[in-house]
Amino acid sequence: MVKIRRKRKKISITKIRKRLVAFFKRLSVIEYIFISLISCGTLFLATFVIDKAYYDALVDKYISNLQNTTVIAAAEYSNYASLEDAVESGMNNRLNVASAIGNVRLRLVNSNLEVTWDTYGTDTSKTLINSKILQIFQNEKTISEFDKENGKVETATPVYNSSDELIAVLIGDLDESEVADVFEYVDDIDFALHIILVTVMLVILFINFHLIYKKLNKKLDLVADIAQGHTDRRLPEGKLTEYKRFASDFNKILDAASKVDDSRSEFVSNVSHELKTPITSIKVLADSLNTGEDFPIEVYKEFMADIVTEIDRESKIIDDLLALVRMDKSASALNITAVNMNEMLELVLRRLQPIAKKKNIDVLFESFRPVIANIDEVKMTRVITNLVENAIKYNESNGWVHVSLNADHQYFYIKVEDSGMGIPKESQDKVFDRFYRVDKARSRQTGGTGLGLSIVKNIILMHHGTIKLHSEEDVGTVFTIRVPINYVKEVK
Fold this sequence. Notes:
5-stranded antiparallel sheet, 12 helices, 12 strands, about 55% helix
C-alpha cells in the first residue's frame, strides 16, 4: 500500500502576530476599543459618584435613626431626680426594649465616667474614658459620627434630670454587622449591575459599529469597483450626514475626472483635426502641382505661397501646443524679473501698429501711473500681444482698440477694450477653452488656432492673477487683467 502523507498547514507565530496586528489596525476595531474604553470609564465614574451619594445617604439615615433612638431614650431621664430613681422606675428595662427594637447598643455613662448600664452587659460597672463623653460633659451637645475604618455608627447625647442638670451621657452604637451586611449587599448588587450595564453597552456598541461599517464596506466595495474601471457608477448618498457628504464629494471628484477625460478626448480630437487640416490643404495643392501640366509660373507661385501659408499655420499650432504643454507642467519655468510695465506695453503696441493700419484701426494707450512689476516679461508680452492682436483682427474697419494700465499697492490692472463684433453670451464661458472659436470660418481667415486665449489664461494663472471678460454683440469686448505686483512663489 502506498501511504499518502497530507501536509499540514503550519501557521507560524509570526503569521499569527501579523494577522493580529492587521486585525487591530482596522479602523472599526480601533474605534470600537477606544469608544468602549471611554464608555466603560464614564460608566464606572458615574456609578462611583452614584454609589458614594447612596452610601452617604445610607450613613446619614443610620445616624439619624440612631440619634433619634438615643435622644428619645435620654429624654425619659428628665422625669427623674437622679439615675437611681430612674433605675428604680425600670428605666434600664426600657433601654433594653429600645435597644432590641432599634437593634442598637445603649450604654449609660455617669459623671464619674462609669458605665452604669450596658444593654449588651459587657461594659457595665467599667470606666469608659472617651473623647466624645468628655466633650459632651463640657459642651452639653449631642455628637454623632461614622467610623469608616470600622464601619461603626455611634451617637453620644447628654442626659438631664428633672432639675435640668447634666447627670450622664447616653451612648448609642449601631450593630456593626448590620451596617457591614447592608454595605456588602449593596456592593454585590452594584457589581452585578456593572457587569450587566457593561455587557449591554458593549453589545449595543458592537451592533452599532457592525451596522455602520457594514454600510461603509458596501461603499468601499463600490469604490473598489470604480477603481477597477467602472467609472460610470456613483456612490448612493444615503441619509446619514457623514455618508452623504462623503458620497457627494466623491461623486463630484468622479464627475470632475469624467469631465477632464471628456475634455482630454475632445482636445485630442481637436488637435488631430487642426493638425490634419493644413496637411490636407498642402497635399491637395501638391497633388495639383504634380498632376497638372504646363501651369503658368504665376500659378506655381500662388500654389507655393498657399503651401507656405499652411506650413506657417501648422507651425503656429504646434508652437501654441508646446507652449500649453510647458505651462501645464508647472509655474517653475517663470523667469521673474522687475519689468517696467509702461515701456513693455508701449513696445507691444508699436509692434502691432502695422496690423492695425491695414484695417485703419486706432490703437490708444492710457497709463495712469508708472508701474514696476515682478513678472515673466516674455510670457506677459505674449498675453498682451494675443489680446491686442485679437482685438484688432476681430474688429471692424475704422474701429478702435483702447489699452489702459493702472495699479494700486498690491495689483496692477491692464484693460483691453475694442469696438469689434463682440462675443455672444452663450460663448463667453468657453472662449478660454482650447480650440474653441466663436466664428470658426472667420478665425481660419484671420489665422486663429483657438489656443490664444487659453494660453493667455494659463499665463495669468501662473502669475496668480485673474482675467475677466465683458462683451456685448455689435458693441465690443473688454478683457480686464489683475496681476500681483510682487510675485510670490507657492510653497508646496
